[in-house]
Amino acid sequence: MQESRGRELRGMVQFEPFVILCRKVIKKWSLPTTNHITKVCGLVETISSRVIVKECDKILVDYFLERMVEYINQQHGKIDLDASEIFDDELTPLTCQEFILPGVVSDPPPPPTNPKNEPYVEEECVPPHESEYEYDPAEGTSEDLERNSGTDSDSSSGSEDDGRGSRPADTAEDKRIRSFVREYCRAAATRYVDAICLYVVERRLFKNCDVRFTDWFMKDNAVLAHVREPAHISSLRKSLPIKIKETQLCLGHS
Fold first, then answer.
1. CA distance 87 to 69
2. Where are the alpha helices (DSSP H) in the chain?
3. Which of 108, 113, 121, 245 has its CB 3.0 to 4.6 Å from that of 127, i.e. a possible disulfide?
4. 140-152 tens-digit pLDDT
5. Where are the domains of the chain?
6. Residue among 84, 62, 80 nearest 72 (CA)
7. Cα radius of gyration rounded to whole Å, the chain
8. Cβ neighbours of residue 131 under 8 Å, at least 6 residues apart?
C-alpha cells in the first residue's frame, strides 16, 4: 500500500495493492488443496478395496478391484482439473473492482439544479464519483508496482522523516483496506473449501456410488467373460450332486 500510495486518483480505492495482498494469501491454498485431494483419493481406494474383498464373491474381487482403481485414478485427474480452475478464479477478485470504502472521500457537491439557464453545466461539471467507474485504478500491472517499489518506498519514507506534515505510514485508509482484505479472504476461504469439498470431491468421488458397480457391468460388454464360469465346469457342477448320491448309495449297499 505504501508503494502504490500517491498513484491512485482521489477517492479511488487502491485496487492494485488489494489484488496483490489477496493473491499472496490465496497462493498458499494450492499445496494444501492438492495434498487433501490426494489423501482423500487414497483413503477412498483403501476403504473400497477392503469392502470389495470382504463383501464380494471371490470370483468378482479381482475384476472389481481393477475397475475401482481405474475409476479413482480417472476421477483424481478430473478433481485436480476442477480444483485448478477454481483456484485460478479465486486469484482474480473481479467482484471488488468497483468497491468503494465508506468514509474515504467526502460526498461530492450536488449537481446544478437549473439546467434551463445553463444547458452545458452538466457536461462541464461532472461529479467526481461518476468518473470512478470509467477509470481502472489497477491500470498499472503488478510487475510495474514491483519494479517501482524501491523508488516509491524510498520517497515515502523520506517524506515521513522530514516532518513537513506528510501522510503517516499507517493511515485510516490502510487499516480499512487491511480489514477488507482480511474479511474478503475469510469469505473466499469458506467459498473455496465448500467448492472443493462439495462440488469437486463429493461430486466426482461419492455421487451415485450406490449404482457404480451396476454401471460397470452395463458399460463393459466383456464383463461376463471375466466372471462367467466355463461351460465344462458348469456342466460338472450340475452333475456332481447326482454322482455324490450314486456314490453314497454304493457305499451304503456295500
1. 27
2. 15-26, 30-55, 58-90, 121-124, 142-147, 149-161, 172-194, 212-219, 223-227, 231-253
3. 108
4. 333 433 444 443 4
5. 15-160+169-253
6. 80
7. 35
8. 9
